[in-house]
Amino acid sequence: MTESLDHRFTEFLLEAKALKFGEFTLKSGRKSPYFINAGAFNDGRKIARLGAFYAEKIAAEIGAGNLPEDIDTVFGPAYKGIPLGVSTAIALTSAHGMEIG
Predict the structure, then answer these.
(1) Does domain 5-96 fall into CATH 3.40.50.450?
(2) pLDDT band for position 1 (cuts 50, 70, 90)
(3) Residue 52's closest CA among 17, 3, 8, 1?
(4) Contact 24, 32 (CB under 8 A)
(5) DSSP run (H or E) holding 5
(6) Model confidence pLDDT, tens digit, residues 74-95
(7) Contact between residue 24 and residue 31 where contact means Cβ atoms under 8 Å apart
C-alpha cells in the first residue's frame, strides 16, 4: 500500500526538521501548537522535494476538478517563497507535463 501524499509530506517535514511542535506566537500574533520553519529547506535536495510535493498536490487537485486545468503560473512571494515557486514550477513541468511560465 502506498502512503498518502499528506503522510509522505508530513514525514518529509519531520525529516527536514522543519515541523516543530510547541507553543508558538506567529507574526500575526496568533498562537499555534505547531510551526513550519521554511528556513529548514536549506539545500537543493530539500527544495526540490518540497516543490515536488506541491506539484503533486496541485496536479491531484486539477485531476479532482478542484483547480482549473489551464494553470500556467506559479507565484512564490518574497523571500522564502521564491525558491518554492521555482521548484514547484520545475516539478509541474518535468513531472506533470504542464507549461508553467
Answers:
(1) no
(2) low
(3) 8
(4) yes
(5) helix 5-15
(6) 999 998 899 999 999 999 999 9
(7) yes
